[in-house]
Design goal:
single chain, alpha/beta, Rossmann fold, 7-stranded parallel sheet, two-stranded parallel ribbon, globular
Length: 328
């Protein structure tokens, strides 16, 4: 049996591919290695995390291209993690999100339909909830007021998946990730940017005066949740699933169930770097939200999801990795 992992050179995708290989799966990795951030980091993930095994087959290509997708080798399950990421970039470059998160998502759904896959797990985002005051975020709550184009594209992907699950009875699971961080993370995310600035003695831009909270999720916990979801396709039994679908389509939050103040993240980075952060307090940015908090009760119940890594452990682990990576 073979799993297709899209975004296999990405942060979450490379970790998921490695975990699948570690348990003996065959993996087809698809990634176009685009320049949204340094492709050298993506190449290093492929080389260092996945390594050299005949059970991994890498395809460089765009999952929004129907010719590339149609030419993929045999697969029986899909973990669709590829996407155009970044809330702030979506405000300046909306077409990137239409291409990858709408057209590309549709091509993966078509692949699932034409290949008759056993299960499609796909990445959504906590961004779909918008800037709601109803905490913690529940997959049963309405999520129809996105405050960024990125969030809108992810919510649209969930609706497309629901339609395909209803029409073609394809088992699908959407995972709403909450601020995933850890070694091999993305340079556009706060942990990487703040660590870079602290080590360089540069001020940190802190939006909304620091009055923000995030449900930070360590990469190892997220990978465990992805694999647990992959192994448990939702049943086509007419019963309501998490997220409300009556078809074989479930939606789960994957977070840490522990929202932390942004300034606690800054404190932990400073401690791990051995330097006092310098703060530049700024107003709220367009497209951002003040707080996130995942209700992970359904994922605990159905998937056995049980995050283990607090921010106080995860941040030093990232900083140690970052020092080694940038020193090399």
């Amino acid at each position: 049996m073979t799993v297709l992992v899209t975004g296999a050179a990405g942060f979450i995708g490379s970790h998921v591919a490695q975990a699948l290989l570690a348990r003996g799966e065959r993996v087809v990795g698809l990634d176009n290695l685009n320049a949204y951030y340094d492709p050298a980091l993506k190449q290093a993930r492929l080389a260092g995390l996945i390594g050299d095994t005949d059970r991994f087959h890498f395809v460089r290509g765009d999952f929004a291209d129907p010719v590339t997708v149609a030419a993929l080798p045999h697969i029986d399950r899909i973990v669709h993690l590829g996407a155009q990421a970044g809330v702030r970039h979506s405000i300046d470059a909306p077409r990137d999100y239409g291409h990858s998160n709408l057209v590309g998502h549709l091509e993966i759904l078509e692949l699932a339909r034409t290949r008759g896959v056993r299960h499609l797990v796909y990445a959504s985002s906590s961004s779909v909830y918008g800037d709601t005051a109803a905490l913690p975020f529940s997959a049963e709550a309405r999520a129809d007021a996105p405050v960024s184009l990125y969030a809108a594209s992810k919510k649209a992907g969930e609706l497309l998946a629901e339609s395909y699950a209803h029409l073609y009875r394809i088992p699908m699971t959407g995972l709403r990730f909450f601020t995933v961080y850890g070694p091999w993370g993305r340079p556009d995310m706060a942990l990487w940017r703040f660590t870079t600035r602290v080590l360089a003695g540069e001020p940190l831009p802190i939006y909304n005066g620091g009055a923000m909270k995030r449900d930070f999720s360590y990469i190892d916990d997220i990978v465990a949740g992805v694999l647990a979801a992959l192994d448990r396709p939702p049943a086509d039994n007419g019963a309501a699933k998490p997220g409300g679908s009556l078809g074989p389509h479930a939606l789960y939050n994957l977070g840490n169930d522990r929202p932390e103040p942004l300034l606690e993240l800054v404190r932990l980075i400073g401690a791990a770097c051995g330097r006092e952060p310098v703060l530049e307090l700024l107003p709220m940015q367009a497209g951002d939200v003040t707080a996130t908090w995942a209700d992970i009760g359904p994922a605990r119940r159905d998937l056995g999801y049980d995050p283990q890594t607090p921010l106080a452990i995860g941040v030093p682990a990232f900083v140690d990795w970052y020092r080694g990576y940038t020193a090399g």
